[in-house]
Design brief:
The chain is of the alpha+beta class and 111 residues long. The protein has one domain: Winged helix-like DNA-binding domain superfamily/Winged helix DNA-binding domain (Arc Repressor Mutant, subunit A), CATH 1.10.10. Helices cover 66% and strands 13% of the residues. It contains 6 helices and 3 strands; from the N terminus they run ααβααββαα. A 3-stranded antiparallel sheet has the order 1-3-2. The longest helix has 29 residues.
Length: 111
């Protein structure tokens, strides 16, 4: 799946909440419904989108469906974001150096 597709899928807060819940391990739909405080049909719809995008997997357990997180698409996203993270880190490092530089007072400048 393309990074842009992953970003589009993750743009929905409910989908991010579901993924956050799945970070803790496998969850049945009923638990995800409780965690995101939406109706079962609404959560199922979001799970279908996440499954179709390859972000979650489902396995049957009797009449229940158990969902789990697939980390591979998120790893691709993290890899794509890495250069931006480095750029951000460089900016923070520059700010830290600036803030650590002693400031000269006006009296010191005229001495």
């Amino acid at each position: 799946m393309a990074v842009s597709t992953t970003l589009e899928i993750l743009a929905t807060p409910t989908r991010r909440q579901i993924l956050d819940a799945l970070r803790e391990g496998e969850q049945p739909v009923s638990e995800l419904v409780r965690r995101v405080a939406l109706s079962q049909p609404a959560v199922s719809k979001q799970l279908r989108v996440l499954r179709d995008a390859g972000l979650v997997r489902v396995r049957p357990d009797g009449q229940r469906r158990i969902y789990s997180l697939r980390s591979e698409p998120l790893a691709e996203l993290a890899e794509w974001l890495a250069p931006y993270h480095e750029l951000w880190q460089e900016s923070l490092d520059k700010l830290e150096r600036h803030l650590d530089t002693p400031r000269r007072t006006k009296d010191q400048e005229h001495a």
